[in-house]
Amino acid sequence: MQIIKDIKEMQKLADNLRQQRKTIGFVPTMGFLHEGHLSLMRIARSKCDMLVVSIFVNPTQFGPNEDFNKYPRNFEQDEKLCQGENVDVIFYPTKEMMYSEPHLASVNVEKLSETMCGASRPGHFQGVTTVVTKLFNIVKPHLAVFGEKDYQQAVIIKQMAKDLNFDIEIQTGTIIREEDGLAMSSRNKYLSPKERENALVLSQSLQLAEKSVQAGNTDAKFIHSQIEETIQQAESASIDYIAIVDGETLQPVDDIRDNTLIALAVKIGKTRLIDNILIRKI
Ligand code: AMP
After folding, report:
1. Which of 13, 170, 210, 215 is the most exposed place for a label (fewest CB within 10 A)?
2. Minimum-distance ligand 1 atom for the alpha carbon of 172
3. Cα–Cα distance between 19 and 42 in angstroms, integer?
4. Could you give the residue numbers annotated as active site?
5. How many angstroms separate the alpha carbon of residue 215 from the centre of ligand 1?
6. What digits encode the pLDDT tens for the residues 210-250?
7. CA–CA dist 129, 133 (Å, integer)
8. What is the C-alpha to C-alpha distance for residues 31 and 54, in angstroms, rounded to an integer?
9. Where are the beta strands (DSSP E) in the chain?
10. Residue 47 gets which letter from DSSP?
11. Tell me: the pLDDT tens digits for 58-91?
12. Which residues have any ligand 1 atom within 6 Å of their CB?
């Protein structure tokens, strides 16, 4: 496994691989890897000759009062986990290299970036789409894999790839959860044992909502208030948003149907967590 920190070196390697007609699978991450990340690596590994994983905590997708500085990092552990998944290359650049001054260009996906997480984190998705574009131009993948844990992000990236004609297949992987249902996230590390318990309210309220929908309660307002009530019962939980939207357009729906996304952002103490469920076949 190679660790490449230099952009030009990564581009040269990608060019060589492409010349040898090798396909490149790519999983972009911010590190502090867990089973969620590894599941995406396995998808890319099974479909491509070469697997590249990037580890880069991207400053431009964090707001001024967010957790960029304290975001968990552990490169040694990440390296071991990547080795275990037969990763060929870890691309591990510095922020100085990624954003050499002056850095004036950016990529924005309108509308889809403005709702849900985009409304509570202004500029977040512009940071994401800009860094993903840069990573695509550096790693030159044939396939890139993103997690449905960040469902809105995956929708935005698919739209970006289509609109800007990236010659890259975008695939998604399902949400990987802890045994008790909590969606895996690098940010779970911030939770105290008590908060860790309270955090279960995200997945539990979504499971309840799904059951309720399957039982015939398809009115979005009703389900919204059911979720709200469940979350409010948990200590130290404050709701950022509950969205009941179309799974493609991310526009709110009144009546829950096949392919409706129910997505949540909830603060547990100081830690903002997200989770979602896609309603299927009702
Ligand atoms: P991050 O390191 O949090 O930026 O995540 C990198 C990639 O892993 C993104 O495509 C995420 O959606 C994905 N991811 C994070 N957590 C999970 C999870 N629990 N299950 C599946 N994919 C995940």
Report:
1. 215
2. 10
3. 24
4. 37
5. 31
6. 999 999 999 999 999 999 999 999 999 999 999 999 999 99
7. 6
8. 8
9. 2-4, 24-29, 50-55, 89-91, 143-147, 169-173, 237-246, 260-268, 271-279
10. H
11. 999 999 999 999 999 999 999 999 999 999 999 9
12. 29-30, 36-37, 39-40, 146-147, 149-150, 173, 175-176, 183-186
